[in-house]
Design goal:
The chain is mainly alpha-helical. The chain has 14 helices and twelve strands. The strands form six sheets. Strands 1-2 form a two-stranded antiparallel sheet.
Length: 427
């Protein structure tokens, strides 16, 4: 179990925290937490609220959000903007190093804010422990996102006694292992809250799935109810749903359909899990923009973890173990909960069964930040060619997709003397 000491954070920390009416929180966050207000229970609670809100902002942000950027390099979203925004480079899979196309700086900041809040809560307000459990789970998710989306070799720095300590580069495997350790800490602290306990269990299952430890992943999520959801909540001014904003308001992205030869037919399938609506031409005046109507406003919540994801993890573990019938039964049990979805039949070959499973994952968890990690797993764990998985071939305006499958960090990492560039840019 992790134990973080606040140490001299009160001397160091001047932390901006946005006021938010998010239902993730039960207190009002102040505009500013100054050093003299950190070293007590109220200050610790303010740090907790601010850290949760900061996580929601980077997870559900617009141009620099986890969902939009990872969905752009995958086949969920297609670029409807001009080429001057960073998402355009993600969508065409042409990412120089360093790159601003992924919210690397914001995600790392969110992680550090969460860890400062953990230290403060442990020292000044340890009860209820479920509040610490939630923070450990969100800290673990930042590691999961970095592992799923970034190149190998990402350091995790920390603040010790008010000083920045540069981290050593971590492999993708090490990032996922660190995520598992933080989810375990969340589970230890979360025994008094089923909501946060299940959040940690689903997250741990996700990290173990990324590690290829399928049976352990299934065991981790086995007690999570199918009806369970944990959502980040949003508000129009300070914490908007950025997926809605970038599609409906900015018209920079659209829900994709058969993007780049390999992409799934998210729009034309007419699947009730991915409802869409035409909202006009994109900024480029070329691309028709379709919104994801499940996110119907700037206040729409976004699912981070769910019991549906837990069942999909169990289904994949069964398929990996050779139990295709058991895997199909889980998929059809889930489909039976959604009006308009007919039962699936068993494909003839294992490759087709894998295709069907990952298609179900893509439609059930559309626009929740899972798809890019799944495409990389198809390459890494199922030995598919990247050009048979990611969007490829001709792009708009006569250009062509590149070959990148992961994001390099932005130039803030260049200040770390331990960082020597991506160890690997593959899946």
């Amino acid at each position: 179990m992790h134990n973080l000491s606040l140490r001299a954070a009160a001397r160091f920390l001047v932390c901006s925290i946005l006021v938010c009416c998010s239902r993730l929180t039960d207190v009002d966050a102040p505009d500013l937490v100054t050093p003299d207000r950190v070293g007590n229970a109220a200050g610790a609670e303010a740090l907790r609220v601010g850290a949760i809100n900061g996580f929601a902002l980077v997870f559900g942000g617009a141009e620099n959000g986890q969902i939009t950027t990872s969905g752009a390099i995958a086949d969920e979203f297609y670029n409807a903007s001009t080429a001057v925004i960073s998402l355009a480079y993600a969508d065409i899979r042409q990412l120089p190093e360093p790159s601003t196309s992924y919210p690397y700086r914001n995600l790392q900041r969110a992680r550090l804010d969460i860890e400062r809040a953990i230290a403060a809560k442990q020292e000044f307000a340890p009860n209820p422990s479920s509040k610490i459990a939630e923070l450990f789970a969100l800290s673990a998710y930042t590691r999961d996102f970095l592992g799923e989306n970034m190149c190998s070799g990402i350091p995790l720095g920390e603040i010790v006694d008010g000083n920045l300590v540069f981290g050593e580069p971590l492999t993708t495997t090490q990032l996922f292992e660190d995520a598992v350790a933080n989810f375990d800490s969340s589970i230890t602290y979360g025994t008094d809250s089923a909501r946060f306990l299940n959040l940690a269990k689903v997250g741990k299952g996700r990290a173990l799935l990324n590690l290829g430890r399928f049976a352990e992943a299934a065991a981790a999520v086995s007690t999570v109810p199918t009806s369970y959801t944990y959502m980040t909540f949003h508000a129009p001014i300070v914490q908007p749903n950025g997926v809605f904003a970038i599609i409906n308001n900015s018209k920079w992205l659209t829900v994709a359909d058969r993007e780049g030869i390999n992409g799934l037919n998210f729009r034309s399938a007419g699947d009730p899990r991915v409802p869409t609506a035409y909202v006009g031409k994109g900024v480029d005046q070329l691309v028709d923009v379709y919104s994801f109507t499940r996110y119907g406003s700037l206040s729409a919540p976004i699912v981070l973890a769910s019991g549906i994801e837990a069942r999909l993890i169990e289904a994949e573990a069964l398929l990996k173990a050779g139990d295709a019938a058991g895997e199909l039964a889980i998929l059809n049990d889930l489909r039976a909960t959604m009006p308009g979805l007919a039962p699936l039949t068993q494909p003839a070959t294992l490759d087709q069964q894998i295709d069907q499973l990952f298609r179900e994952r893509a439609f059930w968890m559309f626009a929740t930040g899972h798809r890019h990690g799944d495409l990389r797993r198809l390459v890494r764990q199922y030995l598919r060619s990247p050009e048979a998985v990611f969007p490829t071939g001709p792009y708009k305006n006569g250009s062509t997709y590149g070959t990148d499958v992961s994001f390099p960090p932005d130039n803030t990492q260049l200040g770390n003397p331990n960082y020597k560039g991506c160890l690997s840019t593959g899946a």
